[in-house]
Amino acid sequence: MLDLYFKYPRVLRRLRGGGLGNEMDRIAAHLAKFGYKRASAKNYLSRLGTFSDFVSRTTRTMPIDQSLIDRFVFDYPTEALRINARTVIGLARKVAPERFSAQPVEADPHAPLLAAYLEHLRQVRGLEPKTCEGQLVVTRRILAWYDAHVPGQSIVTMRGEHVLAVVEHLLALSSNHYTRSSTTSYIRTFLRFLRWSDLNSQDLARFVPRTPCYRLAHLPPRLAWDDVRRAIDAISEATPACVRNRAILLLLATTGLRNKELRSLELRDIRWRKAEVLVRRTKAGRDRVVPLLQEAGEALAEYVLHARPKGDSQRVFLQHIAPVRPIDSSSVISRIVRSALERAGIELPDVAGAHLVRHSLATQLVRHRRPINEVADLLGHRSIDTTAIYVKVALPQLADVALPFPGGVP
Hints:
The chain is mainly α. Helix content is 55%, strand content 2%. The chain has helices at residues 9-16, 23-33, 38-58, 66-74, 79-95, 111-124, 129-149, 160-172, 177-196, 225-233, 240-255, 259-264, 294-307, 330-343, 354-367, 372-379, 384-387, 395-401; strands at 270-271, 276-279, 288-291.
């Protein structure tokens, strides 16, 4: 596979004759498979060739250990070159791990406890992976606080005064009542696990105060529909990434998909002839079907047929920067939305992402007097009570049902 990037026999012999040997061809195949640009791939392979020569000159023992890598990296004169060297060596370690010594991993003293807690959350509580992830984040913070403030003591010695102190600490890190409410709930869950598993004999959960969270006490963040339209129109179609971004914005604006639902879409989920999209395994734990409107369908077809990178993944939306792979991070979608809003000159709210467009669509539908149950079905809400918050922004409808002021003109 090195022949894809280099044509001179002398260069090929040098690249294959170093300490990495024929693994250089595997690395070249990896770069080609994941869509690295030719210039970038040649740069990676050239630097790895230099490292491979260094390995063959320095040692004849395998695997390559971390001390040898550090010696090679240290010879570079600037920090930028050292970072680049570590990056390309990291790529080689990923493709050919058998050529490298295992990286030392610092033992986590809480690993057995966290593993048992995760198993409890999954098997006993039946929680979804994303919820388990949030539970573990709070649990790690509890354990870190306990290690710092009660050094040398096991969690089995935890008392009520410790619980109150750690709750005060974690609530100080929370920015809104939703986060505070979920934090205290997660703390109670962990403390109940300690008692359930006989790691602590006290009922420590009773010391955790309940934080009020009034779900309908605020208005959802939203954009004027004209602003949503401006953001979509501001995306040019000059590059494949722009074609992808326009398809993403149109899907969000016409279907109300959540961030994860959008990222999880597969090619088989698009029913072109029926003009609909199948959304699998939603937050509510069930599949649903949303309509694919003409403009969104045309933008999606343009992306899939002409702008989507080639690859083995069945996911619809892929990263356009090598390595080509599915979009797995929610922050990528949020950046696409924020960039479109900035390009259109729209003032960004505190929270700008897929959910902002979802709120805007729901608000627009309610203002156009669409039945609340239809809006709930489109958004995938299990309960209409969840959708009811959008009624608060439908001022004309609220005015129609408002009772006359006592003593006023009928």
